[in-house]
Specification:
Number of domains: 1
Order of helices and strands: HHEEHH
Number of strands: 2
Helix content: 40-55%
Radius of gyration: 11 Å
Low-confidence stretches: none
Strand order of the largest sheet: 1-2
Number of helices: 4
Oligomer: single chain
């Protein structure tokens, strides 16, 4: 997942404004009590950050790869 795909998935799943608020304000325990923005700045993986955000926001697993995003190959 590229950073641009991360932001597309955030916008598609949560909407632009709410998605930006979530990535800025929601603390993700599984990433060391950082927000998604902080985790990305500290070098955490983009997909790892997206999946942590999905779990924390109770996004159904069927949408973990982002609305309109292709599922990874098995």
């Amino acid at each position: 997942m590229r950073l641009s795909e991360f932001w597309t998935a955030v916008g598609d799943e949560f909407g632009l404004a709410y998605g930006r608020a979530l990535t800025h304000d929601l603390v993700l325990a599984e990433l060391g009590d950082m927000t998604a923005e902080q985790a990305l700045e500290k070098g955490h993986g983009i997909r790892e950050t997206w999946l942590a955000l999905c779990r924390a926001a109770d996004v159904p697993e069927s949408r973990w790869y982002g609305v309109g995003q292709r599922l990874p190959k098995p």
